[in-house]
Amino acid sequence: MDQGNTIVGSHAPSPDDRRLDAIGLACPLPVLKARKMLAQMAPGARLLVEATDPMAAIDIPHLCHEDGHILVNQDRSAPPILRFLIERGTDRAESASERRLDRDPL
């Protein structure tokens, strides 16, 4: 990641940090590609997602909430490009959406 990018903040980039160029991709591809990359990353590593799909502003924060990642920052100051800095959460046995699918019906 570019150390000069304001979205990176005070976090010193590590070799485990990654960047996803989702510019020009339509929903649901930015969030699907982000989920796939995050699954391959170590807990604590950061992913910078750059997208132009307006739905990413909803989908990326939702992904973080559902999968236990931290949305460190989001930047909408340079339209049409949206930037999201995500910190990979700790490994969990299953995501919130998987837990809902496994519930016994009432």
Q: What would your notes on this structure say?
A:
It holds the Pfam family TusA. The protein has 106 residues and is α+β, with helices and mostly antiparallel strands. The protein is 28% helix and 25% strand. The chain has a domain at 24-31 and 59-84. It contains three helices and four strands; from the N terminus they run E-H-E-H-E-E-H. It has a four-stranded mixed β-sheet with strand order 1-2-4-3, with helices on one face. Helix 1 runs parallel beside helix 2 (56-67). The longest helix has 12 residues, at 56-67. Residues 1-7 and 97-101 have low confidence and may be disordered.
Shape: globular
Strand/helix succession: EHEHEEH
Order of strands, main sheet, comes to 1-2-4-3
Number of strands: 4
How much strand? 25-35%
Helix content: 25-40%
* Average pLDDT reading: 83
Low-confidence stretches: 1-7, 97-101
Going by helix content, strand content and strand pairing, the class is alpha+beta
Rg from alpha-carbon coordinates: 14 Å
Cα distance, first to last residue? 47 Å
Number of helices: 3
User: What's the main sheet like?
Assistant: 4 strands, mixed
List keywords for this structure.
106 residues; alpha+beta; disordered N terminus; transferase activity; TusA-like_sf; tRNA 2-thiouridine synthesizing protein A; TusA-like; transferase
Describe how the helices and strands are arranged.
Blueprint: E1 18-22, H1 29-39, E2 46-51, H2 56-67, E3 70-78, E4 81-87, H3 96-102
Parallel strand pairs: 1-2
Antiparallel strand pairs: 2-4, 3-4
